[in-house]
Amino acid sequence: MKKLLMSVAVVAALMSAPALFAQDNEGGDAVAENAAIVDAKDGASAPKSSSSGSGFGAVLFGSGLIGFILWVALFGCGAAAIYFIVDCSILVRPQKMLPRSLIDQVKTAMAEGDVLKALKVCESEPGAMANILNAGFSHVEEGFEIIQESVGTAADLETEKMMQRLTWISVCANLAPMLGLLGTVQGMIMAFEQIATAAPDAGALALAISQALWTTAAGLIVAIPAITFYYSIRNNATKLVLRMEAITMELIKDLRNVEVVSD
Question: How far apart are CA 257 and CA 135, in angstroms?
């Protein structure tokens, strides 16, 4: 009897084994399927990231050839603006344009009534003030009205000379925002190219948008100080030229009664 019961138990176990294996397989398949679903969700929620890095260095070297050329142009524009600002700041100074020694020597010569001595003093210290004084003293024999016209013409000429150098600051101030805008357009083109792909790279998309924003900021960083210095130096130059013209007319006022002797 015991042998019969044992035989029945073995047969029952053999018959139930396939079902158990099937259940185990179904459980494993379910686990694998759930893991695949989780992986798919994770993959969908986690966008691809670019290994190109982040920060300004990535923007500078990861924006392509056109972007790199734009950055070189922006750096060059900023360097040129700094150079011309420093150069014009040194040029447009009262000590440079209105040397005290020149004015004192000319006053001494005019007090002595020696116009030739005043001319020699102007020739020994060339500059904007000397050129205006020289224009007045060179027309002593032609009457006071001619002297006034000569002084005014010389003052306008010196103003134009300074404006030609100051204009380069204005050029840099106007060119920098345009380069920044061009970089913005280039960055937006790169961004839309990434969006148009079937699986856009989030890192590359962010890099393109960074290129657009960085170039705009760089253009404004160059333009704002440049335009500020331009108007400041220009106004200072205009005041100095008017002051030189007034000093010249004050120095040659004694020539008002000069009579023109005709041959």
Answer: 18
Query: Which contacts (CB < 8 Å, 24+ apart) does range 197-204 have?
Result: 199/48, 200/47, 201/48, 201/49, 201/50, 202/47, 202/48, 202/49, 202/50, 203/48, 203/49, 203/50, 203/51, 203/52, 204/50, 204/52
**Rounded to 5°, angle at Cα 111 from 110 and 117:** 40
Burial pattern 127-165, b for ≥16 Cβ within 10 A else e, equals: bbbbbbbbbbbbbbeeebeebbebbbebbeebbeebeee
Tens digit of pLDDT for each residue in 105-132? 888 887 777 778 888 888 887 888 888 8
216, 180 Cβ separation under 8 angstroms:
yes
Task: Give the residue among 114, 143, 117, 105 at the shortest CA–CA distance from 257.
Answer: 143
Residue with tokens 């018959």: 15
For 42-101, give the DSSP string. Answer: HHHHS----TT--SHHHHHHSSHHHHHHHHHHHHHHHHHHHHHHHHHHHHS-HHHHS-HH
Is the pLDDT score of 170 beyond 70? yes
pLDDT tens, residue by residue, 134-167: 887 777 777 777 877 888 888 888 888 888 888 9
Separation in Å, CA 106 to CA 3, 120, 152, 190: 142, 9, 19, 66
pLDDT tens across 220-257, in order?
999 999 999 999 999 988 888 888 888 877 777 766 55
